Amino acid sequence: MSKVKLYRIHPQVDRTGGLAQKFPKLLQEAGLADIVKQGDLVAVKMHFGEPGNLRYTRPAFPVMVVDALLELGAKPFVTDTAVLYKSPRHHAWDYYLAAKRHGFTSEVLGCPLIIAGGMTDLSVKVKVPGAKRLQEVGIAQEIYDADVLISLAHVTLHLQYPLGASIKNVAMGCADIPTKTAMHDIRTTKPRLVGQYQATMDVAKAVLSGFEKKFFGINLLLDVTPDCDCWNKSDVPIVPDLGILAGTDPNGLDQASYDLITAAPGYPGSKLDGTDGAVAGGNKVTPIYPNIDCKAYFDIANQSKLGNPDYEIVTIS
What we know:
alpha/beta; Rossmann fold; 10 strands; DUF362
């Protein structure tokens, strides 16, 4: 199998500028225009951040994505779904207020902001091809109805996964509440998280089955914190900013993100201080979350055929 091509911009300012100046070129070089056609309804799936968290994705990034989509003649909307647990984001009505307080509104974004599933968690039931755990899952109505899915993922570590990135953004992030519950409720495997990983891949497969050659992923390797944006507090990042990856393969994007994080030195003052993860090339996950089996997670992702883990990175400057 040939390597999947991914594209990267570095966070350092160079002759072409900083991230804001490089980002539009990243979208262009990574082939956004090959996926999005005039009139396409495009779901830009992201996380608006739990109230109390201060390291969530800056609104400038979805704004730049929306601007690029509008130039292509598409009809974008920026979206997320309500969460399973007790939170200001548990119900769409409250989530709209939380998003607004973090700077996300339709006026700022330049397109509709939609909490997919709406006030009553509307979804479409989809059969999972080659399911390991979940035979049928619910996909939030508005995301299911879109012509194109763009994952705008803030890459972080996670309490239950090696990292939260494209796959988790597509799976947990696009599912209805009953499906989120089912993903977390796998109790029959040892360790239990293996079953949760299998269920996560089932949901990702179901979502992506509706976007064949119509998926585009952006992984923001900025403020890579030890916890995801669902936490109501934010810790020191574990590594320096590593830039942004883009491409059309969610598995490749996540494998590359994990490898870049591993290769980086630990950030001074982070939870990695005094551990093997503090050195470049050291495992960044195990010192913080010893129960997470990173190899098992990526093996399951590969077995689920969510994409190609073998990649090459083209640096854009």
